[in-house]
Design goal:
The complex is a heterodimer of chains A (about 200) and B (about 170).
Chain A (H helix, E strand, L loop, with lengths): L7 E9 L6 H11 L12 E7 L14 E2 L2 E10 L4 H19 L6 H18 L3 E10 L4 E4 L4 H15 L2 E4 L2 H7 L5 H9 L8
Antiparallel strand pairs in A: 1-6, 1-7, 2-4, 3-4, 4-5, 5-6
Helix pairs in contact in A: 2-3
Chain B lengths: L3 H7 L1 H17 L1 H7 L5 E12 L6 E6 L6 H8 L3 E11 L2 E8 L5 E5 L9 H33 L2 H16 L1
Antiparallel strand pairs in B: 1-2, 1-3, 3-4, 4-5
Helix pairs in contact in B: 2-5
The chains are: A alpha+beta (about 200), B alpha+beta (about 170).
């Protein structure tokens, strides 16, 4: 789901702090540095990186193509190789049988079985293509806000981690408390009262 | 500021109270809502309302679905001490219409349908449409922030305890 979808889900963030130097140039460099790598031919099970909004399968940020008016629009991509557990079980059983036949033993130790499983998962990971999941990101730098087009917890956590690694800026997720604290323009006195609020104070 | 994970759990009741207040405002005071957002023509309950009652160590959930659904059952739940945990809203300004869902605990916006924008037929169209969509999303973002700000200022005030709570109770039993 993304900005151009007919139905949108969005998690809203406040960006804590700002970038040094030219914003567009810094964002361009950092997006490029942490753009999604290709894991088709290696054993990685999952990888997270930035990609471009217009061409999510071929990350390209040249010519500041992520700048749309006052917004910066790009995407988070999470490529994950999902190996069906039944496939892992099948290949583990075959591999264990092969090793037992080769050594003439009746059993493998727990450690040996663990090593077999790791070997099988690695081998299968090299053969199975990664499934891409793409989530659009809209950054209003001046307004210090980021919209992330997913409410999925794992995707949001991936965004928060990659954002601080890339830009050195914390994303503060907006929910009732952070909205009250950061958006509502409360006075110091009102903020003190907020800290003392308890559920049920209003209920009869 | 409090630790984020602790603050999320500790204050999720505020989101539910906000949605409960918002339903009350939608039903009783559209003029006040127009003062909060001068572009607002109407704000109404859409096709879904979820209430939860966690009193007496038991969780009771009431879900009302469907366009033009009868919300009476929701008011009955309110009378028993339930709060709104999820609300689907229909927001109209002159010539534009948004539909979206708000969850109390996170105040995340989901299932958002923006007003129609121009089609993307050429690569040159894309920039205009992206900016238009982002501006339309900002309108909803601003509405939610604005309404929540009004609510939270009221919630920490004496007016909430002395007037608003009894007004909401009166409305729920009316």
């Amino acid at each position: 789901m993304g900005l151009l979808s007919s139905r949108i889900s969005v998690t809203r963030y406040k960006v804590d702090g700002g970038l040094d130097g030219s914003v567009h140039d810094t964002v361009y460099q950092r997006l490029k540095q942490r753009s999604i790598p290709n894991i088709e031919d290696d054993g990685s099970e999952a990888v997270v990186g930035w990609t471009s909004f217009e061409n999510p399968y071929s990350p390209d940020f040249e010519g500041y193509s992520f700048v749309f008016g006052t917004y910066m629009v790009f995407a988070l991509r999470i490529d994950k190789k999902s190996i069906p557990p039944k496939l892992v079980r099948k290949h583990c059983t075959l591999e264990v049988d092969k090793r037992l036949a080769a050594t003439g033993r009746r059993y493998l130790s727990a450690n040996e079985k663990k090593a077999v499983k790791e070997h099988v998962v690695l081998t299968l990971s090299r053969r199975i293509p990664a499934t891409p999941n793409i989530y659009d990101v809209v950054w209003d730098y001046k307004g210090a806000s980021v919209w992330f087009f997913s409410n999925l917890k794992s995707a949001n956590e991936a965004l928060e981690t990659l954002f601080i690694k890339s830009f050195g800026l914390h994303l503060i997720r907006l929910f009732p408390y952070t909205m009250a604290d950061l958006i509502a323009g409360l006075s110091d006195g009102e903020r003190d009262l907020l800290l003392k609020l308890e559920q049920g104070q209003s209920e009869g | 500021m409090l630790d984020v994970a602790i603050a999320y759990r500790r204050y999720q009741f505020l989101g539910n109270e906000f949605l409960t207040w918002l339903w009350f405002m939608v039903e009783t005071d559209q003029n006040r809502l127009r003062q909060y957002d001068p572009d607002l023509v109407s704000l109404n309950i859409g096709s879904r309302l979820v209430l939860e009652n966690t009193r007496n160590n038991a969780k009771e959930t009431v879900t009302i679905k469907g366009n033009d659904a009868n919300l009476e059952e929701g008011r009955v739940a309110l009378k028993k001490g339930a709060v709104v945990t999820e609300i689907h809203l229909s927001y109209k300004t002159v010539g534009q219409h948004w539909l979206f869902n708000l969850k109390g605990e996170s105040l995340n916006i989901s299932n958002l349908k923006l007003p129609e924008t121009g089609p993307v037929e050429t690569p040159e169209d894309l920039e205009g449409v992206v900016i238009e969509k982002a501006d339309l999303l900002e309108k909803v973002n601003g509405l939610v922030n604005n309404l929540f700000s009004q609510f939270i200022k009221l919630r920490v005030s004496a007016t909430w305890r002395n007037q608003t709570v009894s007004q909401i109770r009166k409305w729920a039993v009316s």
